[in-house]
Design goal:
The protein is of the alpha/beta class. 50% of the residues lie in helices and 11% in strands. The protein is built from 22 helices and 13 strands. The strands form 3 sheets. Strands 5-6-7-3-8-9 form a 6-stranded mixed β-sheet, with helices on both faces. Strands 11-10-12-13 form a 4-stranded mixed β-sheet, with helices on both faces. The protein is elongated and about 130 Å long. It starts with 15 loop residues before the first strand and ends with a helix. Bound molecules: adenosine-5'-triphosphate. Adenosine-5'-triphosphate binds next to helix 1. It comes from Megalurothrips usitatus (bean blossom thrips).
Amino acid sequence: MPPAPGASPGASPAAVAVRGARKAYTAAKWILDGLDLTVPEANIYALLGASGCGKTTLLTCILGLRNLNAGDVMVMGWRPGDPGAGIPGPRVGYMPQELALSEGFTIGETLRYFGRVAGMANAVIEKRSAELLDFLQIPCKQSRLISQLSGGQKQRVSLAVTLLHSPPLLILDEPTVGVDPILRQNIWDFLVDLTRTYRTTVIITTHYIEEARQANLVGLMRRGRLLDEEAPEAMMARHGCASLEDVFLALSVRQDGRGGGGGGGGQDVAESHTDDKRGGDAMVNVNVVESIPFLAHSNVKACMWRAWLYLTRYKWVTAYVLMMPLLCLLVFVYGVGRTPTGLHLALVNEDSADGCAAGWQGYPAAGCEDAVSDLSCRYLDLLLESNDYTMDVFPDEPSARWTVQRGGAWGLIHFPANFSRHMAMRQLNLQNALTEDIEGSECSVHLDMSDQLLSNMVRTALFETAVRLHDDMQAGCGLNTRLSLLPLNEMEPVYGSRTPVFQDFALPGLLMCIMYFPAIFYATANFLEDKLNGVMNRSAAAGVTQKEMLAARAILDCAIQAVSAVMVLVATFAVFRFTNEGSYVTILLLLYLQGLNGLWVGYFVAAVCSTHYAATFMGMGIFLGTSFLSGMFWPAQGMHWMVGMWAPLTPMQPAVEAARTVLYQGSNLALIAKGFLILGGWTAALVAATLGLLRFQNKTG
Ligand SMILES: Nc1ncnc2c1ncn2[C@@H]1O[C@H](COP(=O)(O)OP(=O)(O)OP(=O)(O)O)[C@@H](O)[C@H]1O
């Protein structure tokens, strides 16, 4: 079948020449150890060798996806990766060993993405896709998801992607695995046709050694070196073997005996190209060295199209990502910071003869010199006004205490007998009160203090009610009411209300938190997915840099964060009506910047980690560390000085402080500026670190 135009005509002595290639991943071992290899143009070159001998490593070095530690690679007259080489890029078609396609995309979408990356027009992609799918016997519609294909069908789609743009060089890493013998033969025939008709050069690895007899040249690789390189029939004849497998065995034995390996023979790199090492004959017309732009517009566009497709394909995931901050806010509003109710208290009341059954009768009209009774009932009335407490009555203190001990109540209150009379006498006589009245007017309280927040609430309620009873009695008995006041007059607060609520304390931290952490995990998951499923690698071979993939992703993700920030703002202040004394724009910008910061933490984590497992743990560490230091659980002023010294430099704490000052103080420019500066600084640092890391990984991978 005819390939689309674009296969480069013309001749060159060697399409690919590798000389003295050395490559190691670790200091312990050379994977390529002085390897020489020559692939003439318009030939099929079968690279054979045992598993793990370094075939894929060599192919990725030829593609420019990995750098050699030493040696030289020239591909069609260019060093891979040089500006204008088109390798990696549209001049090569790479089929990796693993599928390296997103299973969530359809066949058509997959082909369209790689076609666009190769710069093909939509109509050409359509036509060529149909031809290839027909040829490769993929009966499914183009709308079929890759995940719904059989292993062999996936393999063939992967081959179709490689052949789509008819590159002059094909690098196929085990393309016939999982393909039935008839189709395997068809593929070989097709490759032979390509080399003859269009002068395409093919490098192929295969585990079916005998099928390599159809190649023009065979290279036998072992322990990082090429044992031999020749036409298959000639090689078998020279070694007196009936099969390539026998040749390989014979050469292996010889290599073991020598403790080394034979070189590949063929021309020197310098010989196989013109003297500037860039301009083979075939390249004369395109030997204008273009500079590689930081981001190629068309690649970013293709990646954005793909990322957008991803968003729309996984609508529920996208909706969840968008809604997650809102859901967190909802849970916060209805689950956190509301006043606890239904708290049980154990009551022993020896003061009221009928256990307050008749209710509080009021103060005697004649004044409190006469009998005042049931003050304990008045106290309980005042306490129970809030509906937060339930009184469980007990006959004696041991039984009430037992209930508290086994968790049935948060405390016990014990009014002694004649509490009311002693209390009245104490108030009337003040400094002259008898010891008997002072001691008899003390109601004893034993609390369960195991829950700091709850216990403090109960304690505060009991003490405040005692103060209220005191005021109530002064007024009821016609005494000087000011005398009962504490010598401290709490005036209107400068900021906030006299009865602050926990939700107000927690809100700034929560807002930053719900923008920050979902963004981290979302960005990590997406970017890492492409990295691990091989799509990033395959796209890199097609000429898309990781930076371009990242840029496309980041543009869409930033838009999602913007929508998310607006929704959170509207929900917080328009729907749930939380207080905001300051500027909504400032809060919105803080929310957005915190979300962006989370995104870049996510990209950084994905760049650092090579497994989902590692990324999960790294993300979790960042989550726990930054949230504990953010001051959202406890005021930052209470931190140990060694921790407190660093907390203001973490990405959340200054933002939380800035949000707090905007919400409750209106504006404190210094705090707001600090929040923006530190958050912005972190974000810029993460962008630089992520890009630097990707570049480093590209160079050393
Ligand atoms: N990124 C990496 N980091 C460290 N070691 C690696 C890396 N990639 C490959 N290796 C190691 O390099 C050696 C060669 O691997 P390579 O994938 O090139 O072999 P191969 O000949 O293609 O194997 P196969 O035929 O099984 O695909 C192996 O020992 C492998 O473990």
